[in-house]
Structure formats: C-alpha cells, structure tokens
Amino acid sequence: MARVAAIIGGGVIGGGWAARFLLNGWDVRVFDPDPEAERKISEVLANARVSMPGLSDTALPAEGALTFHDTIAQTVEGAEWIQESVPERLDMKLKVYAEIQAHCAADAIIGSSTSGFKPSELQEGATRPGQIAVTHPFNPVYLLPLIELVPTDANSADMIARAKGVISDIGMFPLHVRKEIDAHIADRFLEAVWREALWLVKDGVATTEEIDEAIRMGFGIRWAQMGLFDTYRVAGGEAGMKHFMAQFGPALKWPWTKLMDVPEFNDELVDLIAGQSDEQSGHMTIREMERIRDNNLVSMMRALKAQNFGAGAVMNRHDVKLALDAGMARRAADIADPSKPVVTVSRAVPIDWLDYNGHMTESRYLHAFADASDRLMEIIGCDQDYIATGGSFFTAETHIRHIDETHLGSRIEVRTRVLMAEGKKMHLWHEMYAGDKLLATGEHILIHVSLETRRPAPFSPEIAANLAMISEAQSGLPAPEGAGRYVGQPR
Ligand SMILES: NC(=O)C1=CN([C@@H]2O[C@H](COP(=O)(O)OP(=O)(O)OC[C@H]3O[C@@H](n4cnc5c(N)ncnc54)[C@H](O)[C@@H]3O)[C@@H](O)[C@H]2O)C=CC1
Ligand SMILES: C[N+](C)(C)CC(=O)CC(=O)[O-]
C-alpha cells in the first residue's frame, strides 16, 4: 500500500512538495481553499513529470494517487507525513496546526515549509509540540534536494530519525540545523545577498540584469558545486584558508557591504526593481522560465552526478534505493528468475540525451547499453571492490541496431542475456524497450582483463560461477533475432 502525504497549502511550495512525493510513489492528499489550487498544482506537476525523472538513472516508482479534499480533517487522516505550506504568517500557521492535530495520527510528522519562523514558535500552544518541526525546502522542491530540518528539544530522537528517513526516501538531503535561529541557515545568506542587491539597484550601481549576470557567470556556478568555505579555501592557493583569510581579512572593516543598513521599503523601490525585472524577462511567462530553470538545474545536477559530488552524490544514493525498491538485482543471487533476460537498466530519457531531431540521440543508445553492461558486471561480482583488486572487463566489440525512436521522459528498459561466457570472453545481448516496443539491440563482446598487465586474464571463480549460472538458465531461450548480424547484411 502506498504511503500517504498530506499537503496543507498547495501554492508554489506545496505544489512542489506534492510533485516530489507523488513521483516517488506516495499517495498525496491536498487541502487548499483556493479554487485555482488544482489547476496550479497540475501545471507544476506537468513540469515536474518532464524534469524530475531526468535526475535519476533508475526509473522512478509508479506515480501515487493525487486527491483534493475540502477539509483538513479528511486530508490528514491516516497520513504519515503532513507538510504545511500556507503563507508565511505565524497566526495562520498556528491555527492550521490546531486543526491538523485534532485529526491526524499522534505519530504523524508535521513538517513546516516556513522560510523563517523558528520551530519553537510553531510549537507554541500545540497539543503535541513534539510532532512539529521545520522542514524548509528550496524552490523547485521537486528538483533541489536540500531540506533544512530544524527541531527543538520537544522533538524526540525517534521523530527526528523518522523525519530524516522520509526526507532521504524521497531523494532529498536533510540538513539537521542544530540550533534554531530566525531564517535557519540558507535563508540568512539569501536575505543578505538580496539586501545587498536591492542597494546596488537603488544606488544605480547595477541593473537587475547586471546583478544576475554577476551571479550566473561566475560565483553562482562555483557555489553550486562547492559551497562557500571550500571555494575560498581553494582561492587561498596552496596555503589554503589561512592565507585566504589573511589576504581578505582587512576587507571586513572596509565598506564592502551595506548589510548593517537596509533601503527603505517603499513603492518607489518596488517599482524600480519590478520595472527592471519586467524589462529583463517580461517576454517570457513564468511557466516558460520555470521550464528553462528546471532544464538547467537537471543538467547541472546530472553533471554533479557524474562526479558523485554534492547534490549529485545525493541523487546517486537515491538511484540505488530506487533500483532496490524496484526489485532490480544487484547480485546474481538476487535475480528473481535467471531463465529470463535480466533487467539491467530501467530509467527515463533525460533532457541531455536528446538531439536536434527531438529524440534520443544515437550515442546515448551506447550509453544505456554500456550502463547495462556495467550493471551486469556488478551482478556477476565484478563490482567496485573486485575492480579495486585489479580485475575488470574491457569491451572489445559492439554492434547496435536502432529500431525505433524514443523521446524525452520516455521510460526505457534494457533486458540483458548472456549468450556465451568462457575463459576470458563474455558475449552479451541487450534489448532496449519502451513498454513492449523494441527500440534497439546491442551486441557486445567483453574481455576479462588484469588492470595491472592490461592483458586478457581468466574470470575469477565467483564471476565464472555466476556467468555459468545465468547463461545455463537462459540457454532455453530462442536465439535472439539479429544476433551476429553485421552492417548491411541481408536479412
Ligand atoms: N516561495 C518560495 O520561494 C518559498 C517559500 N517557502 C515557504 O513556504 C510557505 C508557502 O509559501 P508559497 O508556497 O511561496 O506561498 P503561496 O502563496 O504560493 O501558497 C500558499 C498557499 O496556501 C494556501 N492557503 C492559504 N490559507 C490556507 C489555509 N488556511 N489552509 C491551507 N492552505 C491555505 C493559499 O491558497 C496558497 O495556495 C511559506 O511558509 C514560505 O515561507 C519556503 C521555501 C521557498
Ligand atoms: C525567498 N524565500 C525566503 C522564500 C526563499 C526560501 O525560503 C528558499 C528558496 O527556495 O529560495
């Protein structure tokens, strides 16, 4: 049975949470008095369905069911996780918690999306304060992994651990904020940068566009991959952080920031900023801008996945969980039925796999088949630990047949057969499907090698036994149509 999340407040952030839970297989119930909420959430979901599966190299589970409800009572009944995302007004949030707690399970977790309130303020007057904590996300919630989890002493270690578990299960990164503070950690930075930017525009030093260029052409990319302190450590050269601080320490006393002071918030300031922003980007709709943002974020995060670093490492860990949840084998002993082809890849086609023809480009077919071979290697015992001992496989020959096209977001599966495995050689046959439609076949000869001599070497006994088990179990299958074909061979 699917796990249930209740979303109270389905605006920009609640909609993002709904997409995050739904696409990770949870059933989602929404309460929002706005008659437009259902339309808005369906538009956010449409964007999320295109972008979010592209983050994973394993298919997401089947989407949960989305329902809208007229009362908080119906929405929260039986929910394991309740996410409050109503407007940033303390009185409103407290009223909503009273209603939630009157109807929800005593062990349900109530997370608040609040950007700035402290959890002790949210727990004030609650029936069960230990049930409520801050779980502050970042927009778009369905792509960015960070959740600032801010508890108080009223929250038990068990509640905090369960909250971290759920956040990780939906592919996010729980950052446990050890001491509550207004605006948590990240929003204090955002607010500082925001105030400084307002001054730069008000003083006529820079336009909104120039400020955005200053961020996205330089330090914004740097921050995205390494954060603040590691970036400055590297900037200190070989002497590291001490040198960086010695060099730039005196600047702390120079007038490099106006943070101690804020511009007067009046209509003139709002018109100045909003006017420049309209000029900068008013030619696009917000939905168009969201799609550009989402495609950029997915592409950047996929690059970080390839490095297994930062947000990319979080995504990679989530992929392993998704594969295990989907019952995909990681070891030969886990294969449910070895007499059938083994599912070695199950994923969606991401944005960076498309070409100018609007379909999956040819090199990505090899990418997917190479991933399938890597997974089969892992299954038969040639995993990272084994490779570290000096044995591995090199691919000696590949033949791909492109049979049908596939498009962005389409779910593809590679099913693999071991046609032969003897001595040092393994002959693999991959078939790529979208549903029942055959998209491509890949035929590969791999040679087991010693990474020390870079020469062919016999399989280890474990690999030999696993390969024998799979190829023998699959020997009853009919010969694959197209195996052994060469380019241009008559059919
Ligand atoms: N927009 C952002 O960039 C971020 C906002 N947040 C936080 O998320 C929360 C929500 O913010 P947004 O989604 O931006 O606001 P929003 O204005 O887009 O959405 C709020 C939604 O709450 C609904 N609502 C109002 N009263 C309600 C009630 N009594 N019960 C249920 N729903 C009710 C409204 O109809 C609206 O759809 C705030 O606490 C905010 O600080 C957190 C991270 C980022
Ligand atoms: C501007 N903001 C305070 C609402 C921002 C956030 O809370 C986080 C974000 O997504 O930038």
TrEMBL record:
Q: Which SUPFAM superfamilies match?
A: 6-phosphogluconate dehydrogenase C-terminal domain-like, NAD(P)-binding Rossmann-fold domains, Thioesterase/thiol ester dehydrase-isomerase
Q: Subcellular localization, per the record? A: Cytoplasm
Binding-site residues, NAD(+): 9-14
Q: What class of enzyme is it?
A: oxidoreductase
PANTHER family according to UniProt:
3-HYDROXYACYL-COA DEHYDROGENASE FAMILY PROTEIN, 3-HYDROXYBUTYRYL-COA DEHYDROGENASE
The organism named in the record is Shimia thalassica
Keyword entries, A-Z: Cytoplasm, NAD, Oxidoreductase
The taxonomic lineage of its organism, from the top, reads: Bacteria, Pseudomonadati, Pseudomonadota, Alphaproteobacteria, Rhodobacterales
**HAMAP family, from UniProt?**
L_carnitine_dehydrog (MF_02129)
Start and end residues of each 3-hydroxyacyl-CoA dehydrogenase C-terminal domain? 185-251
Into which family does the record put it? Belongs to the 3-hydroxyacyl-CoA dehydrogenase family. L-carnitine dehydrogenase subfamily.
Write out the function statement from the record. Catalyzes the NAD(+)-dependent oxidation of L-carnitine to 3-dehydrocarnitine.
Q: Does the keyword Cytoplasm apply?
A: yes
Q: Where is the 3-hydroxyacyl-CoA dehydrogenase NAD binding domain?
A: 5-179
Query: What is the protein's given name?
Result: L-carnitine dehydrogenase
Q: In which pathway does it act?
A: Amine and polyamine metabolism; carnitine metabolism
What is a biological process (GO) this protein takes part in? carnitine metabolic process
GO terms of molecular function: carnitine 3-dehydrogenase activity; NAD+ binding
Q: What is its EC number?
A: 1.1.1.108
Query: Which InterPro entries does the UniProt entry name for this protein?
Result: 3-OHacyl-CoA_DH_NAD-bd (IPR006176), 3HC_DH_C (IPR006108), 6-PGluconate_DH-like_C_sf (IPR008927), 6PGD_dom2 (IPR013328), HotDog_dom_sf (IPR029069), L-carnitine_dehydrogenase (IPR026578), NAD(P)-bd_dom_sf (IPR036291)
Q: Name one Pfam family in it.
A: 3HCDH_N
**How does this protein assemble?**
Homodimer.
Q: Which GO terms describe its cellular component?
A: cytoplasm
